[in-house]
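Note to self: keep these together.
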Amino acid sequence: MKKKRRTVTFGFMGFLVLIVIVVATYLNNVGYDNVKQIYRLETTSNSVIQIDSIISGKERYLTKEKNDPQELLKSRMLREGWVFKEQEGSGYFFEKDGRNEIVTMQKWNHFYVIYDLNEGVANLED
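Structure:
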């Protein structure tokens, strides 16, 4: 009886250690700050949120893949007065008052998309 109890206890402890390792690996891979941003996006009614950019002079926005990110980007830029011109790869070209801007879109973490654009071009957030 003691041996069975010990086996169950060690099995449960091993399972807990495995869960901790998986969570730590996920946080290390995605980044703690990014997990906070994902949580913020998932717990609010916003479809696009601004996230921190590591490149000065750039802004980054996060949205869900299921939100049709291409059309969402075009509608948000149109709301800010930008007219969609064309797409080449992950770059979306917009024009406003003779100015041209490129917004790049990258799929991130299978369920999310990040928009990168120059600072002050448009506010894509809800």
